[in-house]
Amino acid sequence: MKKYIILSLLLFCLALAFVGFYYYKNKDSLEIKKLTNIKLNASLIDFTYKMLPALYSGLYQLNYEIGVIDEEIKRLTEIENEFPKQKQIVSAEKTIWGKTQKNLEAALSKLSKSIEDVYVLYIVNTEKGKNKIKEKKDDLIKFANDTLDQSKQLTKKIQKEKKGFFKKIKEKIFKK
């Protein structure tokens, strides 16, 4: 009888741990994620989140890409300062990253203007705004995804594969 009680308590604790872990991993998806690298009015972000969730997701990913690029440029600047005689090597790489960053900023500027146009129309005339959303939604999402794909081609080479706890254990168990 004691074994069943202990086993039940153990299973309960394990289930509680999994619920806590799930919440911890997905807590960002329960609230509007902050777009720290994108300069958009808070009302535009809320509008995009509520009315164009797929576009908001694209903006969130673009925000992440901008952060990755910023970090890489900072890293390259540190290397450039540490090894000034090798400046030409680092400068060439920094130029590539800087160009990608400028392309992202230009694309975000274009997206921001389009979102603002739709938002203002929605505020002024909700019916016309909804029609405009239906009309422009696919184009905006495609543009955001295309921009994201271009950026990811460059950033994927520096991003490390994050292995989860269970993936590491699985690799150790099934080591070939």
Textual characterization of the structure:
The chain has a domain at 52-158. The longest helix is centred in the middle third of the chain and has 38 residues, at 87-124. It starts with a helix and ends with a helix. Helix 2 (42-51) packs across helix 3, helix 3 packs antiparallel against helix 4 and helix 3 (53-82) runs parallel beside helix 5. It has helices at residues 2-26, 42-51, 53-82, 87-124, 126-155, 165-173. With 176 residues, it is mainly alpha-helical. Helices cover 81% and strands 0% of the residues.
What's the topology here?
Layout: H1 2-26, H2 42-51, H3 53-82, H4 87-124, H5 126-155, H6 165-173
Helix pairs in contact: 2-3, 3-4, 3-5, 4-5
Main sheet specs: none
Shape: flat
The class by helix and strand makeup works out as mainly alpha
Q: How many DSSP E strands? A: 0
Amount of helix: over 70%
Question: Would you summarize the structure shown here?
Answer:
The protein has helices at 2-26, 42-51, 53-82, 87-124, 126-155, 165-173.
